[in-house]
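User: My advisor asked me to double-check a structure prediction for 3-oxo-5-alpha-steroid 4-dehydrogenase before group meeting. I don't want to rely on an old file, so could you generate it fresh from this sequence?
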Amino acid sequence: MTLDLFIVAWIGIALFALAALWFIDAPYGRQMRSGWGPGVPNRLAWTLMEVVVLVSFYAVVWASGVELSLPTITFAALLTCHYVNRSFIYPWRTRTKGKVMPLSIMLMSVLFNSVNGFFLGSDLTALNRDSSWFSDPRFMIGLVIFGCGMALNMHSDNILLRLRKPGDTGYHIPRGGAFRWVTSPNLLGEIIEWIGFAILTWSLSGLAFALWTCANLVPRARSNQRWYQQKFPDYPSDRRVLVPGVW
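Assistant: Sure, here is a fresh prediction for 3-oxo-5-alpha-steroid 4-dehydrogenase from the sequence you gave:
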């Protein structure tokens, strides 16, 4: 019960984060600007701030001493697949040599991801669902949603990565795939992914992770839209922010 209360409080903080990020563009990537302290090489920063999810998650799992059920091992495997890509594969495929991320932003992300990993590890080991969970409709539906979100995220990331030729550090209008309909399908894919994870685990920590993902990425998608429209006069006027045909 105490863990649940902490997770509920964490969800409440996500609402404040959403409000803050709606008005303040986080200064990294396209929105990078001075005034946020010293910088860390971009690819290294991404690796360090993403891998801590796995470090904190597996530290809690190890400390619990719980013999994990097959469904819990499956949850851990899905989490690991996502964060191995985000920590060690995606950042080092980006052509961002010479670009930096503010140390302050990296440290805030490290804190955020450490807390999320801690809550996921604590909650999922406490639940430790038995093998009957594999036949539960929530698991099956959530797994399909998670897979679709991951596919959309990775496909959209690949389109973005191919925009820059070797030696190019500029920005270009992405085209093709789901970019035909929205500005940030990579972010939409990640949101869908974690909504699926919340459903397939049917856990409070999964819900918190999905809501925090929305709190971070929905304002980011809105910021991306404004940035592209200001940067490129010929940016497609019918391209929505995040949800095709809606917003």
